[in-house]
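Why should sequence recovery work at all? Because a backbone constrains its sequence more than one might expect. Tight turns favour small or flexible residues, buried strands favour hydrophobic ones, and helices have their own preferences. The token representation captures these environments compactly. In the example below, the structure is given first.
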């Protein structure tokens, strides 16, 4: 492999801001913030909005949308 062309592969903390859930994994993503992890070391921090802790597929709390009236609303709105 050529030197200097590959991004740095390191441990990074991803924090789900909605569910107050964090996990550490390896990544090449650039991060502006840092956080002190439970092992006492400081790691780059990436804030995310959805993780397995907050996604409806994993939590089982899926929202049921009203799809029956959407076509009628569209036709009424545009006079069809």
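From this structural description, the recovered sequence reads:
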């Amino acid at each position: 492999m050529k030197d200097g062309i590959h991004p740095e592969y390191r441990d990074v903390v991803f924090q789900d801001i909605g569910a107050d859930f964090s996990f550490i994994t390896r990544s090449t993503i650039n991060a502006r913030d840092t956080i002190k992890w439970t092992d006492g070391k400081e790691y780059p921090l990436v804030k995310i909005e959805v993780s397995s802790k907050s996604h409806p597929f994993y939590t089982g709390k899926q929202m049921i949308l009203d799809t029956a009236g959407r076509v009628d609303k569209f036709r009424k709105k545009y006079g069809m």
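A few observations help interpret the result. Helices lie at 56-59, 70-78.
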